[in-house]
Amino acid sequence: MLHVSKLLPRGQHLAPVLLQRAAEVVLDWDTRQKSRFQATDSQGRTLGVFLPRGSVVRGGDVLVAEDGTLVRVVAAPQAVLRITPCPQHGTPFDLVRAAYHLGNRHVPIELTPAYLQIEPDHVLADMLRAMHLAVQEQQAAFEPESGAYGDHAASHGHGHSHSHPGSPPNGSAHTHGPAHEHEHEHGHGHAPHGHR
């Protein structure tokens, strides 16, 4: 048995050739959210995985065995419900509403710009259809959000600037006179203020 106690998120800092040569292990979400489990890799070896408590394994991550063996994780296709806006009269905002209601029920949700995915649940499917969303059963990899402070959150490799052009380099606050207007390009029009 290969003993694994280290995880490299997305195989960071590994040369591509090492990732290509690595064995694979296919795991569903139920297994990947555990910190201790056994699995069999593509070379038939048994893996005994003992990660720090609270660890979540994602597709594309690399498990590192105590002897240095690398095993790339593949998210297994599994039954999911894919939620999309109604093609006739829905809008992308409908997904925001759906995510809000699902989040209130503490349901694991995979978020994308085009759709949401959750694990099968006929009660939730009925609720979503009543909200005029399209709900389809599919077999797909499931990678739900892990919360603002968990898992790989905030490790996507780039920072965000929140200062305005021309603001002081130290990020100190700035004020505007009453006649000052911000100009922002959003790529869409704004309705007049009197429009409801």
UniProtKB/TrEMBL annotation:
Q: Organism's domain of life? A: Bacteria
Recorded GO cellular component terms are:
cytoplasm
Which UniProt keywords are given for this protein, alphabetically ordered?
A: Chaperone, Cytoplasm, Nickel
Query: What does this protein do, in the record's words?
Result: Involved in urease metallocenter assembly. Binds nickel. Probably functions as a nickel donor during metallocenter assembly.
Q: What is the lineage of its organism?
A: Bacteria, Pseudomonadati, Pseudomonadota, Betaproteobacteria, Burkholderiales
**Among the record's GO biological process terms, what is one?**
urea metabolic process
Return the protein name.
Urease accessory protein UreE
The subcellular location is: Cytoplasm
